[in-house]
């Protein structure tokens, strides 16, 4: 890996070790399987996916990319974790998922290679795992066509988010492996909004995501104090 790649080798190794479990709905990736219908429907309501050219940045094992392809989009998933991409490709073959492909490339490198190529760009649960999230935001803004949509989701940085996303999810409820997240890498909505503005993206919709540990239910709400989602748009030229 070259020094200028915006990725943390420890983060890539962490997810590579679990790569074979991406598509096990009862594995460490169970929360991703549970929240995927929520984020998929939200994206599809704002930017209908049928017939769209879509890029999923930080696709991992392909949970979101696969589901967007099944909604009728032509999807490219990109990641720098080779083992996760191999799992994604294998699942696409086994499930006969149409119109989805995967590449090992960074968002920044793809932005140089293919700017303004996608109707929709998604970057979900990824920004809190890279050294320079602003660089990813800028790359996403370059990759989307004028008038196109860019979706982000990440975790707020405040005491409640630490209590819920780290102490609660990783230590008490064991929803995620310990060490999945680092509090210092969490991103306040104001910080992400500023990064979007600087990249030329307009923030259009914001939603929070909540979880009830008693019922095991996730839902979208107006509470962005822990997990939250942004829908941004590149102005039409």
Automatic annotation (TrEMBL):
One of its GO terms (molecular function) is 3-demethylubiquinol 3-O-methyltransferase activity. Pathway: Cofactor biosynthesis; ubiquinone biosynthesis. InterPro entries: SAM-dependent_MTases_sf, UbiG_MeTrfase. CDD domains: AdoMet_MTases (cd02440). It comes from the Bacteria. S-adenosyl-L-methionine binds at residues 39, 58, 79, 124. The keyword S-adenosyl-L-methionine applies. Its EC number is 2.1.1.222, 2.1.1.64. One of its GO terms (biological process) is methylation. It catalyses: a 3-demethylubiquinol + S-adenosyl-L-methionine = a ubiquinol + S-adenosyl-L-homocysteine + H(+); a 3-(all-trans-polyprenyl)benzene-1,2-diol + S-adenosyl-L-methionine = a 2-methoxy-6-(all-trans-polyprenyl)phenol + S-adenosyl-L-homocysteine + H(+). Pfam families: Methyltransf_23 (PF13489). SUPFAM superfamilies: S-adenosyl-L-methionine-dependent methyltransferases (SSF53335). Keywords: Methyltransferase, S-adenosyl-L-methionine, Transferase, Ubiquinone, Ubiquinone biosynthesis. Belongs to the methyltransferase superfamily. UbiG/COQ3 family. PANTHER family: METHYLTRANSFERASE (PTHR43464), UBIQUINONE BIOSYNTHESIS O-METHYLTRANSFERASE, MITOCHONDRIAL (PTHR43464:SF19). O-methyltransferase that catalyzes the 2 O-methylation steps in the ubiquinone biosynthetic pathway. This is Ubiquinone biosynthesis O-methyltransferase. It comes from Melaminivora alkalimesophila. The gene is ubiG.
């Amino acid at each position: 890996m070259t020094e200028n790649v915006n990725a943390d080798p420890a983060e890539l190794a962490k997810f590579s070790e679990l790569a074979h479990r991406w598509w096990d709905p009862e594995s460490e990736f169970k929360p991703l399987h549970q929240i995927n219908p929520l984020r998929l429907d939200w994206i599809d309501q704002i930017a209908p996916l049928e017939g769209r050219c879509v890029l999923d940045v930080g696709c991992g094992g392909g949970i979101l990319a696969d589901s967007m392809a099944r909604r009728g989009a032509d999807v490219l998933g990109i990641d720098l974790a080779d083992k996760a991409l191999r799992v994604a490709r294998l699942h696409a073959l086994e499930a006969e998922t149409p119109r989805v492909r995967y590449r090992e490339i960074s968002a920044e490198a793809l932005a140089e290679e293919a700017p303004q190529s996608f109707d929709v760009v998604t970057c979900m649960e990824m920004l809190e795992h890279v050294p320079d999230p602003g660089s990813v935001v800028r790359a996403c803004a370059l990759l989307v066509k004028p008038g196109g949509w860019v979706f982000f989701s990440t975790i707020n940085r405040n005491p409640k988010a630490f209590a819920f996303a780290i102490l609660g999810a990783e230590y008490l409820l064991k929803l995620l492996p310990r060490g999945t997240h680092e509090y210092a890498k969490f991103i306040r909505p104001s910080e992400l909004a500023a990064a979007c503005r600087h990249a030329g993206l307009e923030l259009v919709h914001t939603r929070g995501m909540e979880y009830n540990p008693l019922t095991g239910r996730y839902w979208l709400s107006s509470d962005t104090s822990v997990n939250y989602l942004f829908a941004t748009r590149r102005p039409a030229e």
